[in-house]
UniProtKB/TrEMBL annotation:
Family: Belongs to the peptidase S9A family.
Superkingdom field: Bacteria
GO process terms (BP): proteolysis
Name assigned to this protein: Oligopeptidase B
SUPFAM superfamilies: alpha/beta-Hydrolases (SSF53474), Peptidase/esterase 'gauge' domain (SSF50993)
PANTHER family: PROLYL ENDOPEPTIDASE-LIKE, PROTEASE FAMILY S9A OLIGOPEPTIDASE
Length: 700
């Protein structure tokens, strides 16, 4: 609590000081028209200059915007403090994760009272000791992110990666667990992941391109040597592809994955022989995505070859083709196979059918499956941490809109599940049964049914209730319907919260994703608009109090729907929004650009250019009444550069004919995921809630 109160005190002091010294006014950005020509089409961008990172004009303008938004939130400080106090009184300050088993030892992540970061606790014979303390590692930094923490097979060493800027460039370090000393080995400019070979001295890691930040090289490092001596094991030269690494559950192979949005390839290195060359499992074939796991009898493969929702096949050795493998589970047009875990004596599959998740446990030959599911409409099931290949039980998580997450353990012998861990709130006034969740189906313009998950408090007068509608709809990502302890503060004030599972995600399978990308992208936006309209028409909210929220590609969604249906939304929260679609996708020096061609299109191709331009939020701002808008970003964002939302705000302000606030809040010490640490994270949420309540006229 001390840390939280200290931050609030500092927040209050700094805001009052700024306001006392600076006359707050609506920022007006200078215009330097820049002509952008492509396919004989000319666009004039008056704010193109904002991409000059670290220049004085850019930093001065960001400071001006932050001063303006700070003045707004200073006025809402009592409400912000109220939200923070509610979070503090609801969430256990020493909240823990479920215990996890790693190589015979038991660990548990634990939040520490008055501290921003977590500790990893080692539990041995009933005694607890601090194994890793993020708080100690974060000392003296304004931002801290632990990327990976990987314990050597003999438990004597631990490798861990850290980002202290927010750019997702991680440095890997090593610690001797007996002496507790950090070794001299230091691996810089990595993606953060680290995989041990079985010899306890060799690790594999992924390096990023220094300009585009694309993960493209896999290196092998031997402890005690300089990084400059590390051996390049794999390099992906096709800029559409990114690389990541993993290890099979049976610890037999280190896997090098290289994949684009549409195509993948996996290479293998035996964990017992890290000096051998990587061997390709199946060569890449356009539009073939696959993943593998290993068993002592062979390889299990999830493949989308002629199977959009994926099928499960088996091969005793590295196959000549996917067709040469034996089909164990055939393609099902209604069921998407999300994941696979292979154990010594059984298989576990995670699937989704009509949006509902299931876990199936079966024999190693993929027979006699038992299905784990829940009777509710709105919930999530998924694999929890399962590290023991020889286990006779499997851990899985259960979550819903109304209940904190739980971990269950399924016993193969009894075929029963047992609750082994559940997060609990410390607020005695909270009861899950006081809230209602359900799934409804909105109708899209083209007749498709759009699943929407909603939650609200019992007794809420829905006809007068404000609605916060969340959406994403890109990359095939499914937004899970999970519990939020902070969201309760909105529900208790009469809000309805909803997630629109729009096209572009895989909530309804692969075809649902394909129908919301490339030249079908506009379906994502119209689905969201139709979902909002349907909720109002069906009586689930006040039609005049609809708010929308989305981040990153979901920020693109926010920009698009704001242009397409500004009358529909009373307020918008756009987090790290991707809004300058055409200009960004024409700049191949920007992180992610080339690799994103298979998601959005390539504007160097004229047909793609015109289609992308048809919805690019920045290019379609016009003189209208825009709703109230809160736009947030991190200056070090590696995924969506800070200047996209900065330019967007400047252009919105110039063209807005209304009088609702348009706020830009840039955290100078953060990246794509926002600020780090519990205190900062909660403050960001409290400010978003205060913004919504201000627009809605709720002052307490």
């Amino acid at each position: 609590m001390k840390n939280l109160l200290l931050l609030l005190s500092l927040y209050s002091f700094t805001q009052n000081t700024v306001i006392a010294q600076v006359q707050t006014h609506t920022p007006v950005a200078k215009e330097i028209p820049t002509e952008l020509t492509k396919h004989n089409h000319i666009r004039i961008d008056p704010y193109f200059w904002m991409n000059q990172r670290d220049s004085k004009p850019v930093l001065d303008y960001i400071a001006e915007e932050n001063t303006y938004s700070n003045a707004f939130f200073e006025q809402k400080k009592p409400l912000i403090n109220t939200f923070l106090a509610e979070f503090e009184n609801r969430i256990n300050p020493e909240e823990t994760s479920a215990p996890i088993e790693i190589q015979g030892n038991t660990y548990q992540w634990r939040q520490i009272k008055d501290k921003d970061y977590k500790q990893l606790i080692l539990i041995e014979k009933g005694k607890e000791s601090i194994y890793f303390d993020e708080n100690e590692r974060a000392k003296g930094t304004e931002y801290y992110s632990l990327g990976d923490l990987s314990i050597s097979p003999n438990n004597q060493l631990v490798a861990f990666s850290e980002d202290k800027i927010g750019r997702r460039n991680y440095t890997i370090l090593f610690r001797d667990n007996q002496s507790d000393k950090i070794l001299k080995d230091e691996l810089k400019k990595t993606d953060g992941s680290v995989i041990w070979a079985n010899d306890n001295k060799t690790v594999f890691y992924v390096k990023k391109d220094p300009t585009t930040l694309r993960e493209y090289q896999v290196y092998k490092h031997i402890l005690g040597t300089s990084q400059s001596k590390d051996e390049l094991v794999f390099e992906e030269k096709d800029e559409r592809f990114t690389v990541y690494i993993s290890k099979t559950l049976d610890k037999s192979f280190i896997l090098i994955h290289t994949e684009s949005s549409t195509t993948s390839e996996i290479s293998l290195i035996k964990s017992d022989n890290p000096s051998e060359k990587a061997l390709c499992f199946l060569k890449r074939e356009q539009d073939h995505l696959y993943e593998i796991d290993h068993h002592e009898t062979g390889f299990f493969v999830l493949s989308n070859k002629n199977s959009p929702n994926r099928k499960l096949v088996f091969t005793e050795s590295i196959p000549t083709s996917i067709e040469s493998c034996k089909t164990l589970i055939a393609h099902d047009s209604e069921t998407y196979l999300e994941g696979l875990e292979v154990f010594s004596t059984f298989l576990a599959l995670q699937s989704r059918k009509m949006g509902r998740t299931e876990i199936s446990i079966g024999n190693i030959d993929a027979t006699n499956f038992s299905v784990i599911s829940m009777p509710e409409e709105v919930y999530e099931l998924g694999f929890s941490y399962n590290e023991n290949y020889f286990a006779k039980k499997i851990n899985y998580y259960y979550a819903s809109f109304t209940s904190p997450s739980s971990i269950y353990q399924y016993d193969l012998a009894s075929k029963n599940s047992q609750l082994v861990f559940q997060k609990k709130l410390i607020d005695p006034k909270f009861h899950s049964e006081d809230y209602i969740s359900k799934r409804i189906w909105a109708i899209a313009n083209d007749g498709e049914k759009i699943p929407v998950s909603i939650v609200y408090k019992k007794g809420t007068d829905l006809s007068k209730a404000p609605l916060l509608l969340y959406g994403y709809g890109s990359y095939g990502v499914t937004i899970p319907t999970t519990f939020s302890a902070t969201r309760i503060s909105l529900l208790d004030r009469g809000f309805v919260y909803a997630i629109a599972h729009i096209r572009g995600g895989k909530f309804l399978g692969e075809n649902w994703y394909q129908d919301g990308k490339l030249n079908h992208k506009r379906n994502t936006f119209t689905d969201f608009i139709n979902a909002a309209e349907w909720l109002a028409m069906a009586g689930y909210c006040d039609p005049n109090a609809i708010y929308a929220q989305g981040g990153s590609a979901g920020g693109l969604l926010m920009g698009a729907v704001t242009n397409m249906a500004p009358h529909l939304f009373k307020g918008i929260i756009a987090q790290v929004p991707f809004v300058d679609v055409v200009s960004t996708m024409l700049d191949e020096s920007i992180p992610l650009t080339v690799g994103e061609y298979e998601e959005w299109g390539n504007p160097n191709i004229e047909a793609d250019y015109w289609y992308m331009l048809s919805y690019s939020p920045y290019d379609h701002i016009r003189k209208i009444n825009y709703p109230a808008m809160l736009i947030t970003t991190g200056y070090h964002d590696s995924q969506v550069q800070y200047w996209e939302p900065l330019k967007w705000v400047a252009k919105l302000r110039k063209n807005n004919l209304g009088n609702q606030p348009i706020l830009f809040d840039c955290t100078m010490t953060a990246g794509h995921g926002g600020g780090s640490g519990r205190t900062t994270e909660r403050l960001e949420v409290a400010k978003e809630f205060a913004f919504l309540c201000h627009i809605q006229g709720i002052n307490e």
